[in-house]
Amino acid sequence: LIEVRKGVLELLSVCRGARKEFRTRMRLGAPVKQILAESQEAEADLIVLGCSAENMCVWDDGVKVPQKIANDATCSVLVAKEEKPSNKIVCCLDQNTTSQESLEIINQMLTLYHADLEIVGITDDAHGLKFDVDRKINSILKYYNDRQIDPFVKLVALSSLESFVSEESRRGMVALWMGKKSIVERVFPRTKVNRLVRASGSSVLILR
Predict the structure, then answer these.
(1) How confident is the model over 55-87, as pLDDT tens digits?
(2) Is residue 9 within a helix (H) or strand (E), and if so which, with residue range?
């Protein structure tokens, strides 16, 4: 390990010349602060965190690192917690703003887990969200169909989304689009993201 700057050490002999860049770093300090700092400096697309079993989701010292990272990271976060691979990924997508990068991350998760894909479109007449949902969902479907993926599609009212996600998280990985101005944030503000990450029986993917 070579100290590349104060409090940051790097193993310089890992996978040099490999097809993918691979770095091993150790940072000194509070875990949440250092993980977020590293992700920002590396311009990361995804942070992957493991945690303890269902209804706990803490690290060895009891700190709720996964929940705090899921809340505060500017990029996507995968909290991996189940002992067996998920055979279904349920994606609750804000069809108005979901990014291309997030669709690609989901595609990579499908390949990794050999899982089926369920796309959830969100509707709510009270807020005018039902208008044009079909057309926008179809554009997401086309993205996956072009990659030989045939998702199942379900429409869920915004008012029912929290209970729907709670139930689905017991059976497979749940992916939530939580980018800027996402309508999903009406249902899962900061405290509810904490609860979802903690209580989910499966891995949780927060997309940004």
Answers:
(1) 567 676 667 888 889 888 989 999 887 666 678
(2) strand 8-11
Joined tokens for residue 59:
């690290």
- The count of C-alpha atoms lying within 13 angstroms of the C-alpha of 86, restricted to the half-sphere facing its C-beta, is 30
Is residue 10 a contact partner of residue 4, using CB atoms and an 8 Å limit?
Answer: yes
8 A C-beta contact, residue 14 and residue 26: no
Task: Record the tokens describing residue 70, joined without a space.
Answer: 């899921």
Assessment of whether the complete model's pTM goes beyond 0.90: no
Task: Report d(CA 149, CA 145) in Å as an integer.
Answer: 5
Interval 117-176: pLDDT, tens: 999 888 776 555 554 566 778 888 888 999 999 999 888 888 898 899 988 887 788 999
The dihedral through the CA atoms of 14, 16, 20, 21 has a sign that is: positive
Q: List Cα–Cα distances, 147 to 60, 87, 92, 169, in angstroms.
A: 40, 19, 20, 26
Rounded Cα distance, 81 and 203, in Å: 5
**CA 158, chain centre distance (Å):** 19
